[in-house]
Design goal:
Number of helices: 10
Order of helices and strands: HHEEEHEHHEHEHHHEHE
Bound molecules: zinc ion
Strand content: 15-25%
CATH class of the largest domain: Alpha Beta
Helix content: 25-40%
Number of domains: 2
CATH superfamily of the largest domain: Zn peptidases
Number of strands: 8
CATH architecture of the largest domain: 3-Layer(aba) Sandwich
Shape: globular
CATH topology of the largest domain: Aminopeptidase
Length: about 325
């Protein structure tokens, strides 16, 4: 099997490690993640790497070179809900394939290679981002350990349950000496390369993500009253609030309202949100628009990747 076939096959295998049958959902510190890491650990070993796992849960495969410095490669192996199979795993699989090639020809480079399989980039489980790379960068926010997931499981406990020690996350900080660089292969989440017929694009930097909580406030406008005031479409004013939310998000993406980005909270007011199921659908639409805008523009992620919460009902 040639290396590219192997990369594709391994991405297929990782796609089978999911918490939700029929789709790919692999949150931080989950059972699906544990299964995925068993594969990745073995593949790193086969490529001649010594493998370790840090406290936050990143796998680190090291291939020693003759010099003291290290070149980093990798990507994330967690996923969003109902993810694509190449988002993250592709970068880890290609990194391992690169080391495998050096190993197969018994080649020692003048520097070491280290492949990082980050345990969390997407923040699906705890509504945060980059837990894995933050720990390596020494930028992990310890207050994040107190966050709870949707089932009330505190992050510190989830880390413990998956084999890490939350009180030692400071030790995950890179301590391997000079870093020559970091290279990540990532699938493009947009249409540009395909439209231009290009097999690959090379960038020197990527956008970070800013996440906001969108609180929709206001009141439900009863259907009977709609008839009274003669409104035909009760979703139109809510749609205007949606436009306002998108505009705010766009401004955050451009870096304009820093105070807003820092507060991570946008309040969208409408006096006539629909109630019950209709509202849930509307909230889902808002969530979708934020998601698709994020993907389409390949820029900054605008918002929490969940439908906004409905307050005040
Ligand atoms: Zn990704």
């Amino acid at each position: 099997m040639n290396p590219s076939q192997q990369v594709m096959e391994r991405c297929d295998l990782l796609a089978s490690c999911s918490d939700e049958p029929g789709s790919i959902t692999r949150p931080f510190a989950s059972d699906a993640m544990r299964r995925a890491q068993q594969y990745v650990r073995e593949w790193m070993r086969q490529a001649g790497m010594t493998v370790s796992r840090d406290n936050i849960g990143n796998l680190r495969g090291r291939y020693e070179g003759s010099g003291a410095a290290t070149f980093l490669l990798g990507s994330h192996i967690d996923s969003v809900r109902d993810a694509g199979k190449y988002d993250g795993p592709l970068g880890v699989m290609i990194a391992i394939a690169a080391v495998q090639r050096a190993h197969d020809s018994s080649k020692r480079l003048p520097f070491s290679l280290e492949v990082l399989a980050f345990a969390d980039e997407e923040g699906l489980r705890y509504g945060s981002t980059y837990l894995g790379s933050r720990a390596v960068a020494g930028a992990f926010d310890l207050s994040d350990l107190e966050r709870s997931d949707a089932d009330g499981v505190v992050m510190a406990d989830a880390i413990r349950a998956s084999g890490g020690d939350p009180s030692n996350i400071g030790e995950d900080r890179w301590s391997g000496g000079d870093v020559l660089g970091y290279l990540e292969v990532h699938i493009e989440q947009g249409p540009v390369l395909e439209a231009r017929g290009l097999p690959v694009g090379v960038v020197s930097a990527i956008a970070g993500q800013s996440r906001m909580e969108i609180a929709l406030t206001g009141e439900h406008f009863p259907a009977a009253r709609l008839a009274e005031v003669g409104l035909v479409n009760r979703l139109v004013p809510a749609g205007q609030a949606l436009s306002a939310a998108m505009e705010l998000a766009g401004r955050v993406a451009l870096g304009a309202p820093l105070a807003l980005a820092a507060s991570k909270r946008v309040i969208v007011e409408s006096a006539d949100w629909p109630s019950g199921e209709a509202f849930a659908r509307q909230a889902e639409v808002i969530g979708q628009i934020f998601r698709s805008k994020d993907a389409r523009e390949g820029a900054v992620a605008f918002a929490e990747k969940r439908p906004p919460r409905w307050r005040g009902q």
